[in-house]
Amino acid sequence: MAPFFVLLVGVFLAPVITAVWLSFFTDDRSGLGFGPESTTFVGLRSYAAVFGDPTFLGALGVVLVFCLVYIPLLVLLSLTLALLLDSGAARLRPLIQLGLFLPHTVPGIIAAIIWLYLYTPGISPVVDVLAGADVTIDLLGVETVIPSIVNIAIWTNLGYNMVIFYTALRAVPRELVEASVVDGAGPVRTALSVKAPLIRSSVVMVVLFSLIWTLQLFTEPMLLSQSTPVINSRFTPSMYIYDAAFTRNNYGLAAAASVILLVCTVALSYVVTRWSNRDARRRAAG
Amino acid sequence: MSTTVRSRRPRFLGRTAVNVVLGVFVLYTLLPVLWLVLAASRNADALSASDLFSPENFSLWSNLVDLFAMDDGIYGRWYLNTLLYAVVGAAISALISVACGYAFDKYRFRHKETLFGLVLAAVMVPQTVLALPLYLIASHLGVVNTFWAVFVPLLFNPFGVYLGRIFSEGYVPDEVLEAARIDGTGELVMYVRVAFGMLGPGVLTVFLFQLTAIWNNFFLPMVMLSDQELYPVALGLYSWNSAATVSPEYYPVVITGALLAVLPLIVAFLLLQRFWKAGLTAGAVK
User: Fold this and answer.
1) Fewer beta carbons below 10 Å: N end or C end of chain A?
2) Greatest CA separation for chain A
3) Reduced to 3 states, what is the DSSP secondary structure of residue B186?
4) Chain A closest CA to B61's CA: distance in Å?
5) For chain B, what are the domain ranges?
6) What would be the CATH architecture of the domain defined by B66-285?
7) What is the pLDDT of residues B184-232, one digit of tens each?
8) Do residue A12 and residue B212 have CB atoms under 8 angstroms apart?
9) Residue B245 DSSP symbol
């Protein structure tokens, strides 16, 4: 068993380590060709180029704005739905759970296609209904395009995260809930002060995974960019990497951007974990 | 379950309000899918007129015929590719990941926790960061634009290893393994005969999640493949959708193709509900 396992770790971890390793090394060289033969050492020049590039900073800004809008909204909505579902007043719980979860089974690219068509005047019933009510809105315009992508993301991930919260809520000891009712807490109070804090570890996990998901945002804006000029080919960092590597064939630049994205992800994940731990300790002390 | 607490709570909260809110969100998640179904079964005229409810435009069959005839029937090819990538890939991936997690749980070896930390760190690494180094490795090996370039990286599933360890802790009691050892069973035989049966549900859970992950995967095939014959459905629909911006006759096939691509996943999730819920619970425990 043990040798079998060693092999597995080797087969498994090798690609990742090599991948990360390589990305650390290509960024120190300007990979003009395919092999190491044609690489030259340029130090941190690629990094300087990336940071000096306003389109990269813009892309980073886009995902940061996206994080600030999307993650709180997602957590708030899915937590609310989970608490409602757990409140005892909800009917047809398994069906509701399934219905909400359904979009998660829809591949990202197809979710983007569905919503793109729902955003397109002339095809979309939604836009037509709005137009019938004299509301004309360009859902792919400069100001609406980020909310439009947030909507796709919420639609895809709402049910999935709701189910995570819901299963965590089911694990909350019923005695605690009953005790709080005996103490005179109403259902809203019980939900917010007893149940929600008990599933904080799930909340942290959801925030963490949503963060990683958001930082590598690619599929949805990539598809929408086919139909709207507002999304350029370097709209998010992942699109920037793709554009740098495969449109401009500048591997050094793309690798540097990859490493920066990786560092941002690790740093933000670390901040979230640290913040949640400190918060937990403070609660324990108070 | 039906304690006095549960039956009393609706009085405070308003059963109707709770169910209306849940219902609205279920509509939000289901209506776009319903739109996809309706749109896929109507002809192009009805689509452009947003006239999805008139029965005389029902043409699901002819849409399907069009879909498989478009571009010399390449959609069928994409579909088979996706099945191959996703089903075979997820099966192998799940077997390896769970075996790996099992080994992490049941065996003691040097640097075990460091290695496991590495696995957890790998969960955090965005796919898009790995794509470029993977592409460079693949081009060194000369496998760019082949089946293997997409297939092999997708076998890697660190989150599956994490889940595998949790399942192994939960499902396989150490005593059973001890008993088998005393009977003189070899380690490998023991894993296959004794432990694997107990891990079955865990393997299925990991399989299901990896299946969706591969089905969803878009960035890696986009980077690796240029030969349309090797495309998975997601990438194929993306290229058709970009063609549709110029030639609108692609719109109906994109929609019908999207519907067909979603169906297997929905069916899989409906049939295997027990397992993905188990997976989400295990993930939420941490």
Assistant:
1) C
2) 75
3) coil
4) 20
5) 66-285
6) Orthogonal Bundle (1.10)
7) 777 777 777 777 777 777 788 888 888 888 877 777 787 777 777 777 8
8) no
9) T
Tallying the residues shown for chain A, one arrives at 286
| Chain B residues within 8 A of A177 when measuring between CB atoms | 5
A88, A174, A184, B12, B14 from B7: Cα distances, Å: 7, 14, 16, 10, 12
pTM (2 d.p.): 0.77
User: A185 pLDDT exceeds 50?
Assistant: yes
Q: Domains along chain A? A: 14-285 (1.10.3720.10)
Q: Which of B39, B133, B188 sits opposite A1 (nearest CB)?
A: B188
Q: Do B103 and A5 touch (CB under 8 A)?
A: yes
Maximum C-alpha span of chain B: 74
Which residues in chain A have Cβ-Cβ distances shorter than 8 Å to B191?
A: 1
C-alpha separations of A186 from B168, B262, B286 in Å: 40, 42, 29
Query: How far is Cα A215 from Cα B28, in angstroms, rounded to an integer?
Result: 25
Provide the residue count of chain B.
Answer: 286
* pLDDT tens for each residue of B43-77: 655 555 555 555 555 666 667 766 666 666 677 77
Query: How many helices (H) and strands (E) in chain B?
Result: 16, 0
3-state secondary structure of B55: helix
Residue that the structure tokens 């137009």 belong to:
A131
Cα separation, A149 vs A112, whole angstroms: 8
Query: What is the token pair recorded at B26?
Result: 């279920």
pLDDT at B162: 79
Q: What is the pLDDT of residue A34?
A: 43
CA dist., res. B113 & res. B165, Å (int): 12
CB contact under 8 A, A125 and B52: yes
Written as one string, the DSSP assignment of chain A is -HHHHHHHHHHHHHHHHHHHHHHHHHTTEEE-SSSGGGEEE-TTHHHHHHHT-HHHHHHHHHHHHHHHHHHHHHHHHHHHHHHHHHTS--SSHHHHHHHHHGGGGS-HHHHHHHHHHHHSTTT-HHHHHHHHTT----TTSTTTHHHHHHHHHHHHHHHHHHHHHHHHHHTS-HHHHHHHHHTT--HHHIIIIIIHHHTHHHHHHHHHHHHHHHHT--HHHHHHTTT-TTS-TTSSHHHHHHIIIIIS--HHHHHHHHHHHHHHHHHHHHHHHHHHHHHHHHHHH-
The shortest CB-CB distance from B9 to any of A88, A125, A128 is to A88
> Residue A31 forms beta bridges with which residues?
A39
CA neighbor of B230 nearest in space, from B145, B144, B139: B145
